[in-house]
Amino acid sequence: MRSFISLLVIACSVGGCASNINIRNADAHAQSGYNAQRNGDWEVARRQFAQAVVNADLGKAEAGGKAMVNYEYGRSLGVTCFWDESEKYLLRSKQFEEDRNHSPYLPLYELGLLTEKQGKSNQAASYFSQLIPLMEKEGLRAKYPLGVADAYERYAFALEATGKFAEAAKNRAEAHTLRAANSEAKPFGQVTPYGSACYKNAS
């Protein structure tokens, strides 16, 4: 399991390095959040990553660590149907990635999935239109061809839903070409099951 100690770098305040406690707490809550995700308990994951985010902020973690805990908190919020909050924290993760000059393709992909699930086709199309050039720039076509194909396919569906049929057909054809050329590639992973574990008080 990934350790956040290496990512959530301690920033000492004027009074000393008391933030070390917050960094350890962020790490512990993040690990518990990952364990809950593995067990399919997204409500516990949501609560654990909420604490990880708070402690990462209090401990003045570096952008990489903040990007990761905000990303996982955003995903957990979306699975439990806290839609607006989910988008907020995924956008926060995106900003932290950009702040450290890293490609924000992971939060962008999740933002596309999140808005797609809600039937917000215009927003989904916007997110996927930003995502695909980044995936291509990062060389993910070679590393994760089926993931890139999935992004093209989802972009096509979103475009189709907004009446842009010609552009949709072009992106769907690209997805088909990628899948055909990589028929033996391994699946790119499990798609976040947004909306599948709605918390009873979610709005």
Automatic annotation (TrEMBL):
Keyword Signal tagged? yes
Keyword Signal on this protein? yes
Alphabetical UniProt keywords: Signal
Signal peptide: which range, if any?
1-18
InterPro entries linked = TPR-like_helical_dom_sf (IPR011990)
The superkingdom listed in its UniProt entry is Bacteria
Q: Which Gene3D superfamilies match?
A: Tetratricopeptide repeat domain (1.25.40.10)
Q: What is this protein called?
A: Tetratricopeptide repeat protein
Task: Identify the taxonomic lineage of the organism of origin.
Answer: Bacteria, Pseudomonadati, Pseudomonadota, Betaproteobacteria, Burkholderiales
